[in-house]
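Open question from group meeting: does this chain pack into something compact, or does most of it stay loose? Before anyone orders reagents, we agreed to write out a predicted structure and look at it together. Recording both the input and the output here so the notebook holds the full record.
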Amino acid sequence: MTSLSRNGVILPSSFNMVAKEIQAQSGTGKTATFCSGILEQLDYEVLECQALVLAPTRELAQQIEKVMRALGDYLGVKVHACVGGTSVREDQRILGAGVHVVVGTPGRVFDMLRRKSLRADAIKMFVLDEADEMLSRGFKDQLYVM
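Structure tokens returned:
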């Protein structure tokens, strides 16, 4: 039994989301939905960042990381939250060791990209959670550069 099915998530074999906008009320499973889609598409033999998830706040990014870890428990997913208020050196160490998924806030992720601690060449999935909130908080320029 996989962690996805253990958590009640059943994915069709051809599950694929491309450039979708999902709007729904809180508590409807949006986070689990996009996390499941990411986990389905990862190549677990490649220890490089293949998915980048941006959230407007540290708390939301950490919550998404927790969901991703829970769903990917038996899959061996390596996920890291890059958020402000935490050690830059620790982020650099973890990213240097390799992760499959980075969940973070625009400011810290932009900084890790600028420092070349996070490489974007293997990223094949990009999720903006609460994109409207990020744009209203003034992250438009950083999002455009990313």
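Observations to bring back to the group:
The first strand starts at residue 51 and ends at 54.
The radius of gyration is 15 Å.
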